[in-house]
Design brief:
This protein has a 5-stranded parallel beta sheet, with helices on both faces. The chain is about 55% helix and about 10% strand. The chain is an alpha/beta fold. The longest helix is centred in the C-terminal third of the chain and has 23 residues. It has 9 helices and 5 strands; from the N terminus they run H-H-E-H-H-H-E-H-H-E-H-E-E-H. Helix 1 runs antiparallel to helix 9, helix 2 crosses helix 9 and helix 3 packs parallel to helix 9. Strand 3, helix 8 and strand 4 form a beta-alpha-beta unit.
């Protein structure tokens, strides 16, 4: 049975009562990501170190099935069968999964290393936001301290381009917080403890958004 956003939320709060106080920010982030995808936008994500891995992780949950089966639309499956025959078309359709378009800005080693070497290391994420971002897209900016220069500069460029900025930080939010439309500040300051709480936060968001767009 399809999980509802309320069911997902209730389970999250039961497992992570320390994040109950972040309900307003979490639900606001869910709403903004949902509106982005509903309007044909995409999500960008960035961070450093463990937060870079979190950016990749978020994209992985959005671009393929997370908690739900995501069959491709019947119309697209029919196009594959028409183009490649019933058997091959059906095999292609069955192997594909519904995707919510997302890009990790940490994953392009040639681009980021070249830009860092040739121009400025703290602008590599910002350059990608400038190149990929469109008004209405979402940037998830992850920094455990909230003070990562390259993440903050990405947020600055995102705001100038009309993206929605959602921050994931530790207690206080640092310099990133005022650059965000929504800043989810988990109640820890030590890096690994912040990261341990970021994981359930973005799993919650991915699960709730998935439930909005897929039926089974």
């Amino acid at each position: 049975m399809k999980p509802t956003t309320q069911t997902i939320w209730n389970r999250f709060i039961t497992e992570h009562p320390e994040l109950q106080a972040r309900e307003t920010a979490l639900l606001a982030a869910h709403g903004k990501i949902t509106r982005c995808f509903a309007s044909g936008g995409k999500l960008l994500a960035c961070g450093n170190g463990g937060s870079a891995a979190d950016a990749d992780h978020i994209v992985g949950e959005l671009m393929k099935g997370f908690l739900m089966h995501r069959p491709v639309p019947h119309g697209f499956a029919a196009k594959l069968r028409e183009a490649y025959g019933a058997a091959e078309g059906a095999a292609l359709a069955n192997a594909l999964q519904g995707a919510l378009p997302a890009i990790s800005l940490t994953a392009h080693a040639a681009l980021t290393s070249a830009f860092a070497n040739d121009v400025a290391s703290d602008m590599a994420f910002a350059q990608q936001v400038y190149g990929y971002g469109k008004p209405g897209d979402v940037l998830i900016a992850i920094s455990t301290s909230g003070n990562s220069a390259n993440v903050c500069k990405a947020a600055q460029v995102a705001r100038a381009k009309g993206l929605v900025v959602i921050g994931l930080t530790g207690q206080g939010g640092g310099a990133l917080a005022p650059l965000c439309d929504v800043c989810i500040t988990v109640p820890e300051r030590e890096t690994y403890k912040v990261q341990e709480l970021h994981l359930p936060v973005y799993h919650l968001l991915c699960a709730m958004v998935e439930s909005e767009f897929f039926s089974a």
